[in-house]
Amino acid sequence: MELEGDLRRAVADDCAEMRVHYQPIVELADGKVAGLEALVRWQHPRRGLVQPTVFIPAAESTGLIVPLGRWVLREACAQAARWQAARHAADPLAPPLTITVNLSARQLQDPSLADDVRAALDDAGLPPHALVLEITESVIIAEPSAALATLAAVKALGVRLAIDDFGTGYSSLGYLQQFPVDVLKIDKAFVDGVTRGGPRAALTRTIVALGDSLALHCVAEGIEDELQRRHLQALGCGYGQGFLFARPLPADEIEAMICDGV
Ligand code: G
Ligand code: G
Ligand code: MN
Ligand code: NA
């Protein structure tokens, strides 16, 4: 496949064509930026800016996601450390920023993941608690024992873990007591349903209550309008992410929001 060959070349070229965009995660109460999710893009010489839904599957099936994911991690940690310094200079009392990076199943099977994470943090000068690694429920379910061992090693560094697309992946909640999870990211499907009443809204309310009772942070994904924001805040969801606040943007367009809010 042509895309696959191009991807192999791009990763071998130190990911020089890759870009990281960032989407703010805000406090629903006041719109202040609490953190950012790193989302990779590919500035392809002929195709233009290629979205991850196009090339992440090929990166996963070829194993290229391991070096690509390592590059995203290093890039995002370095950027977060620079933003953290800028924010602290502007307001020494501002809460620390978090940076969230997505992990694929293949990366959890890589025995050097914890070492890579430690090196990325050390080289960036970023404290471990500022990093959140995001995995989907399906990643845990696919390979529970390997995932558990790797995640325990990463957690031992002081890094936090988030479950992405929460509510869509798996029906048993048992893994929440087995896995050292810190953050639930509520899938956009539940956010879309929250203003419509009925069963979907009841489920959203229950997910927020579950997060609350397990002392997990809740981030509602894909918030697109003010009514959704208000409903989620009323339910007690602390954080949100979505086009209402900002789209994923290049780093230089994020700078001002870090210090002033969206
Ligand atoms: O950026 P966008 O909103 O189009 O992201 C589409 C999908 O690509 C999301 O599901 C996201 O989790 C995934 N994705 C984006 N960046 C990365 C990355 O660096 N690593 C992995 N594994 N997935 C990513
Ligand atoms: O990792 P995850 O699958 O959660 O990736 C986030 C994806 O959701 C990215 O593709 C991002 O562009 C997308 N996204 C973020 N906010 C919104 C939103 O408000 N509406 C929609 N439709 N998509 C969003
Ligand atoms: Mn994600
Ligand atoms: Na998601």
From TrEMBL:
Top-level division of the source organism's lineage: Bacteria
Extent of the signal sequence: none
Domain spans labelled EAL: 1-262
Name of this chain's protein: Diguanylate cyclase
Organism: Gemmatirosa kalamazoonensis
Residues of the whole record sequence present: 646 to 907 of 909
